[in-house]
Amino acid sequence: MPKPEFEFTPVDTVPFAPCEPPIDGLSEAILARDEEHGTVTRILKFEPGTDTSPNGALTHDFWEEVFIFEGSFVDQRLGRTFRAGDWATRPPGMEHGPWVSEGGAKMFEVRYQRRED
């Protein structure tokens, strides 16, 4: 089923659930999902003190666009801090993370496949 149609809806009505694979303090609120095409729109939340190092660096087979709208985190691989207002576009196969967030963070994220991928 394609992503459902929604008019403006308060984001706080969407519950957060643990991510897969689970990491203490990391959760997601799925705003829309299209299983057939592998498209997901979500809010990713890092609670204060979240450390994703147990999962190591990530790669995946989809495109990912993210915008940090609250807080910050440190990319352990790059040794850089990213803050609210920063964004990234990651093509399939791009290595990223792991991260540590001392004060917590929230990101808006869209994941999708391109036809030629």
From TrEMBL:
InterPro entries: ChrR-like_cupin_dom, RmlC-like_jellyroll, RmlC_Cupin_sf. Gene3D superfamilies: Jelly Rolls. Pfam families: Cupin_7 (PF12973). Residues 11-108 form the ChrR-like cupin domain. It comes from the Bacteria. This is ChrR-like cupin domain-containing protein. It comes from Zhihengliuella alba.
